[in-house]
Design a protein that fits this description.
There is one protein chain. The protein is of the alpha/beta class. The chain has 3 domains: about 45 residues, Orthogonal Bundle (434 Repressor (Amino-terminal Domain)), CATH 1.10.260.40; about 130 residues, Rossmann fold (3-Layer(aba) Sandwich), CATH 3.40.50.2300; about 130 residues, Response regulator (Rossmann fold, 3-Layer(aba) Sandwich), CATH 3.40.50.2300. The chain is built from 14 helices and 12 strands. A 6-stranded parallel beta sheet has the order 2-1-3-4-5-11, with helices on both faces. It has a 4-stranded parallel beta sheet with strand order 7-6-8-9. Helix 1 crosses helix 3. The radius of gyration is 24 Å and the shape is elongated. One of its GO terms (molecular function) is DNA-binding transcription factor activity. InterPro entries: HTH_LacI, LacI/GalR-like_sensor, Lambda_DNA-bd_dom_sf, Peripla_BP_I. This is Putative LacI family transcriptional regulator. Keywords: DNA-binding, Transcription, Transcription regulation. Pfam families: LacI (PF00356), Peripla_BP_3 (PF13377).
Length: about 325
């Protein structure tokens, strides 16, 4: 027979209301009383009925996270950190992958994920701001992650894409590199991560008096094989370069792999830099110079902002926008 809250109350010698207050983290409970209840819960093996509790409170203490693809290292590491931060605040995170399609993003905003959770952390890639606003009208809180949508109607936590890319490019220029290839963007990109990081690259070139060469900008999927293919295109096309800036670490690691296969020494013949500072960057050979975009700060600020919105039970007149601080991680691939 299942253990009930009444059983816990009797074992602890307290009222049913006191057990309920402990389970709901009510703050005005004496530590000794709280410990008695927790000891009784452990001894009896009581499991709270979260569904019933959420029906009573109107809150599930669940957050939703929507990302395009968890096989992308940045998203996987960010999801892990978001879960850790949420757990410290007694929330759990449900994750859904959108594959960056309009239909999947709309489903995430309006479907079961939204119904099961108190609010969403959302990284849109297919929807625009008006589509998101229409889909979320009158519903639960939403915090945007990333840079695809920058709109005052929404809370947003992002990174300093332009400044970070500019700083990394300046580092490569300071090392004597003048033909810096960029992989993961096209010369026409102006928005989103590719456009913003390319803008930072161009600003650094301009300040150093180095001409921008669109032949050094190679579009690619942001995966390791994309980085490898992009560098192969440069080498096979006879395009001279002395550095490669991958707009994420997966691109940079794929590029470095291709360079080493082709007998191009890193960093002697070509320096390599990335963006994201995923765990793998420290352990590649040579270790990868990259931008650490403030992932811990992004996780902390976005979760806290979303929980604040949930617990305030009201919509702010205007969204809060946060940009995390970045650092350069200088390693062997581009000292």
């Amino acid at each position: 027979m299942a253990v009930t809250m009444n059983d816990v109350a009797r074992a602890a010698g307290v009222s049913l209301k006191t057990v309920s207050n402990v389970l709901n983290n009510y703050e005005f409970i004496r530590p000794a009383t709280r410990q008695k209840v927790l000891d009784a819960i452990a001894e009896l093996g009581y499991e709270a009925n979260l569904t019933a509790r959420s029906l009573r409170s109107g809150k599930s203490r669940m957050l939703g996270l929507v990302v395009s693809d968890l096989s992308v290292p940045y998203y996987a590491e960010l999801a892990s950190r978001l879960m850790t931060v949420a757990a410290a605040r007694d929330y759990r995170v449900l994750v859904e992958q959108s594959a960056a399609t309009r239909a999947n993003e709309l489903t995430a905003l309006q479907g079961s994920l939204s119904q099961l959770t108190d609010g969403l952390l959302f990284t849109p890639l297919a929807l625009d701001a008006d589509a998101v606003a229409a889909a979320r009208r009158g519903t639960k809180p939403l915090v945007m992650l990333g840079e695809h949508i920058d709109d005052p109607r929404f809370d947003l936590v992002t990174m300093k894409n332009v400044g970070a890319a500019k700083a990394m490019t300046a580092h490569l220029l300071a090392g004597g590199r003048r033909r810096i290839a960029v992989i993961g963007a096209s010369p026409e990109d102006r928005a989103g991560s590719p456009g913003l990081r390319l803008a930072g690259y161009r600003e650094a070139l301009a300040e150093a008096g180095v001409a921008f060469d669109p032949a050094l900008i190679v579009p690619s999927e942001w995966r390791r094989d994309g980085g490898s293919t992009a560098v192969a295109r440069l080498l096979d096309g006879g395009q001279p370069f002395d550095a490669v800036f991958g707009l994420n670490d997966a691109l940079a690691l794929g590029a470095m792999h291709e360079l080493l296969l082709r007998g191009v020494r890193v960093p002697e013949d070509a320096a390599v830099a990335g963006f994201d500072d995923i765990d793998e960057a420290r352990f590649s050979s040579p270790s990868l110079t990259t931008v650490a975009p403030g992932m811990n700060e992004i996780a902390e600020r976005s979760v806290q902002l979303l929980i604040d919105r949930i617990e305030e039970s009201g919509k702010a007149a205007e969204g809060t926008h946060v940009e995390a601080q970045f650092e350069l991680r200088i390693r062997a691939s581009a000292p």
